[in-house]
Design a protein that fits this description.
The protein is of the alpha/beta class. The protein has eight helices and ten strands. It has a five-stranded parallel β-sheet with strand order 5-4-3-10-9. It starts with 9 loop residues before the first strand and ends in a 20-residue tail after the last helix.
Length: 264
C-alpha cells in the first residue's frame, strides 16, 4: 500500500497561504458583490485583469483595490486579453508599476477569441522574458505534462493547467493529464479554467492539485456569494479526501464486516 500524501502547505513565491481557492474579480454585478463573494470564498489571492479592471489607472472610476485592499489580499495581476508575448510582457510591466513593484503575475497568452486556449509558443516566450526580468510567474497553460514540466524548469513559480476551456463550466475533462502533471510537479499545480460547480473543484483537489483558480463559476452563478461559499467547502473537502487516501475502485461489492466468527 502506498504512503499517504504529505500535507504540505501552499507556498507560492516564498509566501504561505491557508486558502487553496483563488478567485477572479470580473463578471460580478458590482464591486460590492465582488467583495462579498471574495469574502465568502475565503480567498487570499485574487486575480485582476489589468486590461479590464481599474486598480488606479483611472482616478475617476471606482477602484477595485478599495474593496479588495492589497494589505488584506495578494493581488495577482493577469494578462487576460493578450494574444502575443509582447503584449503580455508590457501588461506585466504596467502591473508592476501600478502595484508598487510587486512581482507576482499570472501569465496567459491566448491563441484565439473562440476557444481562449493558450498559445503555448507565445506563452513560453513571454515566460522566459518575465522570469529573466525577475517576475514571479504563475502560468496558465494547456494540459500537456511535458509543457508543464518545461514551465517549471524555466523558473515559473506555479503551473496552472486548464481543466476545460475558459468559462465553459464543463468540469475536469482531462483528469489523467492533470494527474500526470501533479505527479511530476516540482512547483504548485493549480487548475485554472473549466470549473462549473463545487464537485468539479473537489475533483481537482482529490487529484492532488495544490489549488484551484476560478471566476466564471462563481461570478456567473445565480447566487454568486452562496456559490463562493460552496466552492470554499468543496476545496476543503477535496483536499481532505486526497490526504485521506480513497478506497480502491472495485467491480463488485464487498462486506463491510468480516465473516470470521459468524454463526451460520
Amino acid at each position: 500500500m502506498s504512503a499517504l500524501p504529505e500535507d504540505k502547505p501552499l507556498v507560492i513565491a516564498g509566501r504561505e497561504y491557508q486558502s487553496r481557492l483563488l478567485t477572479g474579480t470580473g463578471k460580478y454585478a458590482d464591486l460590492e458583490q465582488t467583495r462579498l463573494a471574495t469574502e465568502a470564498a475565503g480567498a487570499e489571492i485574487v486575480t485582476v485583469a489589468i486590461r479590464r479592471s481599474n486598480i488606479g489607472q483611472d482616478p475617476n472610476e471606482p477602484n477595485l483595490l478599495d474593496v479588495l485592499p492589497p494589505d488584506r489580499y495578494t493581488i495577482l495581476p493577469n494578462t487576460a486579453g493578450c494574444f502575443s508575448a509582447d503584449d503580455a510582457v508590457r501588461t506585466c510591466r504596467l502591473a508592476r508599476e501600478l502595484l508598487d513593484g510587486k512581482k507576482l503575475v499570472k501569465l496567459e497568452v491566448l491563441g484565439d477569441q473562440k476557444t481562449l486556449f493558450p498559445d503555448i509558443t507565445q506563452t513560453l516566450a513571454a515566460a522566459e522574458t518575465l522570469v529573466a526580468e525577475g517576475f514571479d510567474v504563475m502560468v496558465y497553460t494547456n494540459d500537456d505534462p511535458i509543457i508543464a514540466r518545461r514551465f517549471a524548469e524555466m523558473g515559473c513559480v506555479a503551473v496552472m493547467p486548464l481543466a476545460a476551456p475558459i468559462g465553459s463550466g464543463l468540469g475536469i475533462q482531462n483528469r489523467w493529464n492533470i494527474l500526470t502533471i501533479v505527479e511530476e510537479a516540482t512547483v504548485p499545480i493549480l487548475v485554472d479554467a473549466g470549473v462549473g460547480t463545487a464537485s468539479d473543484a473537489a475533483i481537482a483537489m482529490e487529484l492532488g492539485c495544490d489549488g484551484v483558480l476560478m471566476n466564471t463559476a462563481i461570478a456567473s452563478a445565480r447566487n454568486p456569494v452562496r456559490m463562493a461559499r460552496a466552492m470554499r467547502l468543496a476545496i476543503e473537502a477535496g483536499r481532505e479526501a486526497y490526504l485521506s487516501g480513497r478506497i480502491p475502485r472495485k467491480r463488485f461489492a464487498s462486506a463491510s464486516s468480516p465473516l470470521d466468527g459468524m454463526f451460520f
